[in-house]
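Example (one chain per record):
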Amino acid sequence: MAKAEEIVGLDCEAHALAGVALVLRTRFMEMYAFREAALDWSDPKGVHDMRVASRRLRSAMGDFAPYLRGRLPRKRLRQLADALGAVRDEDVALAALEELTHEAETEADYATDLRAIHTTRCARRDDARALLALALEASALDALREKFLRKLAHAASAPDDSGVDQARGRDTPAPTFKQMGRVIILARLDDLIARSRALQQPHNVKRLHDLRIAAKRLRYALELFAPCWGEQLQTQADEVAMLQKALGDLHDCDVWIDELGALLEQTRVKKDDLTTETIATLAAERKATFQLLSHFTKERTEHFRAALACWADWEATFFFARLREVL
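Predicted structure:
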């Protein structure tokens, strides 16, 4: 995963809104800077990096929403993130298929059938790339940048020049960036713990997906506010990244399993209506699909066990108490 750009000039003891404006401006421009790399189809890393930058930006926007005075253009950013995600998902799928095809070279028929599925996914990626190219047109992205920065200037402006938040009362100073960070991180931590019951339901796809999102948001918050606490917070962010990765790999398997199941349903036809050649082609495709389904079901179990082991280790080493103590 691409490393987040350092927030230059961040003052953890200054007014929270000053830090909010600096962070969101930096995160947006970081995403914006990946445009050319994302449009370089010869290297999928560009799309991945821009997508991650987009996620960090939107996660920070969610963290800061209660402190802002106005709304930022979330819908347009979400549309851009969806376009990036569509291409990235196909890149990941094709990479997995290429690896499996290479491993299956000793089974000539199976490898051929996998290449047929690979061809279909390439067509899907071409379509996704065409939509992403439209979303990343220079004029469209420049318009989004101008709109975002304009709205940010208003949304993150201090209520008055005294540094006191009118909404909190004249006698209550507005929080510093660090104080705000403590509130945000603890809220993200509580959300993660609340959603951890998903680990008791290994086949509940949605709850495990929600747990992954909660882990991602906590990790981004820890990384964002790490400069205010030092290396220890970054170390704990790295621990959360391990859970996020296990759950992310598990989610990728769930997507595969769902799509493969749908493919098997689509190819379930009456043989009386088909030619002998078509029947043979469909049979080969279904055989490859069953083998892929078996592969990803096994992989899913391994990723779930990794997530479970990570959580068990956290409980054994008092991870949650240690994080609260740091804050």
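Caption: Residues 175-327 form one domain.
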